């Protein structure tokens, strides 16, 4: 029989930790699964094991916040079983989770499930984006925080939104020279007046600190500009960049310039990671203001599948603070549903995080209005730019498939193999979907998605073959009976 | 658009596309109507072309048989996976023989390579039971001795170094090949279009207009298409289309789950069939591992139990696969029939209607001859293959006319 657990939380970023802390604090035993070897998720990463941290200040505020969250987690006591280095490969019937670590796998059944799988960097294909030396903001963040070394000597940072400043400053802190920060949207830095709701928002305060430090160091911030292409034989040697049209961010190729850099960092925001909520059977909708496809949720973040909750960036891009607050609301709600705390107590515990969410969602809305990616960026890719890296499908091939009658992602996939590789479309679906919508005039809902298939994370056949908690189908070899019957 | 097409093909899987291609090639005016459907068999298939193996119960048959025996649910008197009748073998062998020329023709007409490959099929014998099962197949193979070859463990190790040494030997079937199934369907479709066929995608057929015993139009979500003849090639959904004209078709969805690995360098030259699974390395490098045989209605998911069983079967057959990553697991719905033979041709009492459905586990293999045969039926030409045994009327009492309400 499959063992059953009162609560399984997938993802140990701020959302998953928030949920685990609140549920455990209320007395509910939980199992916390994360494919990473450390708790903390995308933002509150810890350096890799083996590296000694001598100067925690160098790791920045996030590290300190992460430590606080981890301390809260430690205080929640022994009710949490932590499965680090363990990925969820798929979810069945809403509650059965197939997991795998490096050398084991198995099926566990959860009475309640919280999916807090975060987001991934929005891929924006441009010529040279697959060259070594081109990294995503998240990739750099992981690299710098995990290894405490710089990934390049001279970097061009391009993308959208105030997060870029933090990435650039972290790079500088790690010893890299930052050639420029290119913002595709309008400036958010002085003297630009900021919306009232951003005052007192820690997120913007942090970004402005980073901006100040970078400006003091002579790093230019240029609005309505972006990277056009990266060049080099083995790895990035230079990049071309230039202005974009302010309305839709179409690159103005005629005004391109070149910079000698060995690192190009791109950060065009994030796409919710909805693989697990999709496999769990939750209904999704397209919400461009929250990053794309997201699971539909009722007020305390339960999905359309009873007992399955979704929190944090995986349910719509909201940032670390809101992710944690959502997680806390979910943790309390799950504990309440499991009878661990009374309704009145649950209401009391939800109050603070809910109030925080109200503030944060307003601030985030303003941010999205200015910095959500615009359609003109699809013009960065030339016909021979790879759109799908796994299967090496070019923009030209996607164009030909669409020209030949493909009207949705599924059709493009069957025609070109786009999205058939190990990333299951993560790196190519956003571009292909936007392109389809632009060419056919259809809506994102009509263009559809690339359906995720288990396993959503890597697993070997050997590990899968030994899965625990799954009955063996046949013990006897029935062809033995043939021997008797045939002669 | 003012002249109505001679024929409308319903369903754009490999069968519908093959029919459209051969019909267009004959100069008939064809319109293919398809609504992409989760679970369409063609997108799930392994692309094995195993006329010999399949007809003696290898491929999916033996795996299914083992699962049934493991559950203790074999019908009385059944010992060993079922062999299909001689007519199936003849049909399949003929169809398979069409592939080399067809691949060339499709490349010329539509510009697509269907990745046809001569591989042969090896049945791995793990134990005495497997040997006892294989011996008579080798000795009395309906295809004749020259197409089969008995390999000792040493010979097998030389031929396929990646295969486990824990075997009693292997039985090789020469003439069992493989193709890329999606490419095949796509190539049929593209070529049909180059030959003048109209392809209407993303459009659901919602009804058939029948006037005094003859189909006169196909109704779709975007309007009616008048026609002289309709071909039902709707795979596992063929009964729905049949019912639109009052024809009851005994096709049911039979789910198959299948697993694909990351791309590997060339490790297998033959396709492999065991009592646990079959394996085929495709041109792209991935190894495809199939497959379950399940009656779960139109359910198209995958299950942890099948993933585990297929993985275990693959690692047993080719041990180094244990360190290879699984890329995806998916499933498709085979159009299953009670006697495992396709349902082709006209239906008594209904004019302007032809079946091209029920291809079960061998629709890729049997697509070329089906396409050719059905196109001949459409044109009223002499059929290249006797079709009597494939008529719907073989199922006694299966035809019920809709009551006239
Ligand atoms: C460069 C960069 C800078 C940022 N700066 C800021 C900032 O200054 N302020 C701010 O508010 N936000 C910032 N963010 C955003 C912030 O990181 C996210 O909003 C936040 O981490 C979301 O938390 P989460 O818990 O929803 O997801 P995550 O933190 O992404 O956590 C998700 C976790 O789920 C795990 N996971 C996913 N899938 C599986 C699976 N199948 N099996 C097992 N585990 C799985 C992952 O390993 C990960 O640990 C930044 C992000 C980046 C990349
Ligand atoms: C796991 C697996 C492995 C297999 N391996 C092999 C193999 O190795 N070799 C082999 O020869 N065969 C194999 N098969 C079998 C083979 O795939 C099928 O026999 C074959 O694909 C059937 O093709 P089809 O065109 O009849 O059906 P499908 O491919 O299912 O196509 C039917 C089409 O009709 C459409 N349709 C249905 N209803 C409507 C409607 N109302 N309006 C419009 N369109 C409609 C559907 O959307 C679909 O596109 C395998 C099958 C599976 C599942």
Give the cofactors and ligands.
flavin-adenine dinucleotide
Give the number of DSSP strands of chain A: 21
Report the uncertain regions of chain A.
47-59, 473-478, 480-487
Q: Radius of gyration of chain B, Cα only, in angstroms?
A: 21 Å
Q: Which structural class do you get from the secondary structure elements of chain B?
A: alpha/beta
Structural class of chain A: alpha/beta
Gross morphology of chain B? globular
What is the quaternary state of this protein?
heterodimer
How many beta-strand segments of chain B? Answer: 19
- List the chains of the largest interface with their residue counts: A-B, 47 and 56 residues
Number of helices of chain A: 14
**Helix content class of chain B:** 25-40%
Could you describe the 3D structure shown?
By secondary structure, chain A is an alpha/beta fold. In chain A, 33% of the residues lie in helices and 21% in strands. Chain A has 14 helices and 21 strands. In chain A, the strands form six sheets. In chain A, strands 1, 2, 3, 4, 5, 6 and 19 form a seven-stranded mixed β-sheet that branches. Chain A has a five-stranded parallel β-sheet with strand order 8-15-9-10-11. The longest helix of chain A is centred in the C-terminal third of the chain and has 29 residues. Chain A starts with a strand and ends with a helix. The C terminus of chain A is likely disordered. In chain B, helix 1 packs across helix 12. The longest helix of chain B is centred in the middle third of the chain and has 14 residues. Chain B has an eight-stranded mixed β-sheet. In chain B, strands 8-2-1-12-19-18 form a six-stranded mixed β-sheet. At the A-B interface, helix 10, helix 13 and helix 14 of A face helix 4, helix 7, helix 9, helix 11 and strand 17 of B. The structure holds flavin-adenine dinucleotide (2 copies).
